[in-house]
User: Which sequence fits this backbone?
């Protein structure tokens, strides 16, 4: 923990004046229940020292493998988990995320879309109920006609037409894509400013995914929503989001404009992730070589006893002694890019040298 | 030798039809599917969920249970001839008769194909795993949670190689684990002690235990992370080089197939709508559905552009639209598409083996076949249309 504190001292906390939702050094640990009363208390270090900022009309993608802590971050931002330490700032002020009334005010502005539309809708209620609930709770609508009117306009906004037919359908009568549209409409019902989308398309069929992504993009443009798009697919992050953040084992490793991060990844983990992603574009470039060589092997470490220092160091082809001793701080690379890696700063090797090696 | 292996047909599926008999109508999951698999080939099957890919795989292995019914067709398997020296260690295919005598199924003419649909349960038992192995999607559910993975490999060997002693079995099991890249001391681990990638490797090891000729992989990497997926794929490619088995690789992720497979067949509503080498399919997909599917994956490189996906949703297989099943979603559909069922045929001017089931490429209905850019512009128009909504 001392190492972490040292690293934290070096980083300055940036306040973005135009950010609508900010996470400042969020950390989450989940205590494990142990059968041994006298044994050491064990915790899962799910998220460590994570900061991010969301801006109106801008999408930010959070990319990482399963177990990297992306969903935990979304849930902390949505107020479903309370962070172990760190703060969530909404419009520059510290958001109060405890207690019913505070949470209710917060959720009027920040809404979460879950991954699985098959379990996020209640099977015994129809679409009218799902969309009517947030309208009743937040918008104080009066009467059934007003409710119907608003629900119909919501359904039209998510391209579910004819809306009059969908209003009385039950979840089992809808396809996966239609269900996810209902889930999006439900999030939109409170007229939020921030949408947190936790893998909104990964449960959907391939041909439907782009439709739903395009819908979210259109809503972002039209209503100037701030979007957090959580995904494991780095190609859709590039398609969808202006900014991309990469996480590994609970730590942020790299961030910046999507195009830059994906075209010129600097952190060894981002490089691994991109080289592993399926890319038919390689076909036209080099027909003989179909499957590229992996620069690193191994798996995401256990977060109960995570590796010391940079958590990627056991798998990293460029690991140095310092990597296992200290947590790398944030190094600004210019143009909005930053990374947490000793190869690029706070270490012995210079930026240019490592670039040639990679 | 290599060319011989390359050209030989190993498996031939002819007009296979599989129906599910449901109380509210028959579901035509697979309709008149024909294809052939060469020795050493990786054939990719791609399509949306509900397009019949998995049903086809289960039909080939005869794993379907009622209400599924194979209502027509043939699945011909051409066994490797016995004078092949590569597999001398293989026990010849034998069948236990009722009186206790063993009889070779493939006695006499070795070149005679076997119709898998005609086999009795006992004969099937011999073919399965010896010649035809399957790797399922969910690695956790495919392994027995209360047996160590080592015991599960040895179980296969005990059943199919009764002559093998316990030491030889152990030897073979640790060989197999090394083959797929797991330390052999992991044989004593239970499935829950292994990570997702290791479980999938263990399943591949079990599938390879008897050196099968055909490996059917049903979405083997869908539940895995990209980095692990890449490792597994590299492993499959390496093993294929080494052991020269054929693979039928089923996935919804077309971008994966374009890197891995030799040939790719695209399925829609139970039928194969296009089959081509991966290069042809990537560079010039012919069927509008293939184009749409290819265009559903954002690219990692190149210009960022607006993409559209495919409008609508897959049809209800109880009531497949007449004519071409894709016509309600197709941006290039014309009158013939709504009435006449297109057949799989070589496209005009194509001699590379690319076949497509689409009237656009049939000179009887369309004088001039559309180019890939025509498909692109139609889809783009569609994307803009839905945008303005």
Assistant:
């Amino acid at each position: 923990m001392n190492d972490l504190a040292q690293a934290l001292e070096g980083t300055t906390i940036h306040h973005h004046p135009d950010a609508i939702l900010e996470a400042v050094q969020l950390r989450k640990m989940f205590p494990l229940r142990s059968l041994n009363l006298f044994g050491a208390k064990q915790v899962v270090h799910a998220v460590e020292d994570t900061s991010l900022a969301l801006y109106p009309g801008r999408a930010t993608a959070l990319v990482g493998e399963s177990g990297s802590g992306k969903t935990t971050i979304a849930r902390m931002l949505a107020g479903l988990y309370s962070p172990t330490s760190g703060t969530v700032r909404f419009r520059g002020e510290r958001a109060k995320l405890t207690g019913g009334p505070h949470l209710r005010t917060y959720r009027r502005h920040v809404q979460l879309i879950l991954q699985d539309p098959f379990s996020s809708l209640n099977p015994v209620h129809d679409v009218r109920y799902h969309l009517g609930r947030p309208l009743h709770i937040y918008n104080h609508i009066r009467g059934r006609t007003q409710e119907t009117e608003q629900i119909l306009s919501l359904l039209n906004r998510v391209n579910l037409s004819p809306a009059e037919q969908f209003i009385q359908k039950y979840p089992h009568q809808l396809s996966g894509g239609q269900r996810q549209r209902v889930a999006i409409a439900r999030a939109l019902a409170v007229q939020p400013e921030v949408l947190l989308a936790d893998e909104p398309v990964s449960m959907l069929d391939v041909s439907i995914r782009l439709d739903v992504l395009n819908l979210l993009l259109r809503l972002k443009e039209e209503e100037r929503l701030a979007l957090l798009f959580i995904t494991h697919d780095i190609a859709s992050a590039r398609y969808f989001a202006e900014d991309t953040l990469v996480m590994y084992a609970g730590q942020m490793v790299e961030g910046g404009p999507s195009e830059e991060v994906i075209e010129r990844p600097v952190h060894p983990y981002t490089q691994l992730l991109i080289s592993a992603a399926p890319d038919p574009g390689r076909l036209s470039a080099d027909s003989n070589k179909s499957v590229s060589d992996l620069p690193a092997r191994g798996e995401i470490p256990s977060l109960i006893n995570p590796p010391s220092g940079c958590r990627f160091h056991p798998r990293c082809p460029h690991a140095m002694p310092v990597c296992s001793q200290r947590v790398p701080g944030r190094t600004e690379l210019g143009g909005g890019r930053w990374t947490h890696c000793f190869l690029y700063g706070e270490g012995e090797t210079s930026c240019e040298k490592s670039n040639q090696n990679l | 030798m290599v060319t011989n292996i390359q050209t030989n047909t190993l498996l031939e599926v002819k007009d296979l039809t599989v129906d599910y008999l449901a109380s509210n109508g028959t579901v035509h999951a697979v309709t008149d599917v024909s294809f052939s698999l060469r020795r050493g080939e990786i054939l990719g099957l791609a399509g949306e969920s509900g397009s019949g890919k998995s049903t086809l795989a289960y039909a080939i292995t005869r794993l379907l249970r009622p209400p599924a019914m194979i209502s027509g067709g043939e699945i011909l398997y051409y066994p490797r001839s016995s004078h092949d020296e590569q597999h001398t260690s293989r026990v010849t295919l034998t069948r236990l008769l009722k009186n206790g005598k063993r009889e070779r199924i493939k006695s006499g003419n070795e070149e005679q194909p076997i119709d898998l649909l005609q086999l009795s349960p006992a004969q099937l038992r011999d073919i399965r795993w010896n010649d035809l192995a399957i790797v399922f999607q969910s690695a956790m559910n495919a392994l027995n949670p209360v047996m160590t993975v080592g015991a599960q490999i040895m179980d296969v060997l005990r059943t199919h190689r009764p002559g093998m002693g316990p030491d030889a079995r152990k030897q073979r099991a640790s060989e197999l684990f090394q083959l797929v890249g797991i330390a052999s001391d992991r044989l004593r681990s239970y499935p829950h002690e292994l990570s997702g990638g290791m479980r999938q490797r263990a399943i591949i090891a079990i599938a390879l235990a008897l050196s099968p000729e055909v490996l059917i992989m049903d979405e083997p990497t869908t539940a895995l992370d990209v980095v692990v997926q890449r490792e597994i794929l590299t492993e499959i490619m390496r093993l294929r080089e080494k052991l020269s088995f054929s693979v039928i690789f089923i996935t919804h992720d077309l971008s994966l197939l374009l890197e891995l497979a030799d040939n790719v067949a695209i399925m829609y509503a139970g039928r194969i709508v296009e089959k081509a080498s991966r290069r042809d399919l990537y560079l010039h997909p012919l069927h509008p559905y293939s184009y749409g599917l290819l265009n559903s994956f954002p690219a990692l490189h190149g210009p960022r552009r607006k993409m559209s996906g495919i409008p609508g949703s897959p049809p209800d297989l109880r009531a497949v639209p007449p004519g071409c099943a894709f016509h309600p979603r197709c941006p290039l559909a014309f009158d013939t598409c709504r009435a006449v069922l297109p057949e799989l045929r070589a496209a005009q001017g194509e001699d590379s083996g690319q076949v497509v089931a689409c009237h656009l490429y049939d000179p009887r209905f369309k004088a001039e076949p559309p180019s890939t850019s025509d498909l692109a512009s139609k889809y783009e128009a569609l994307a803009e249309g839905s945008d303005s909504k």
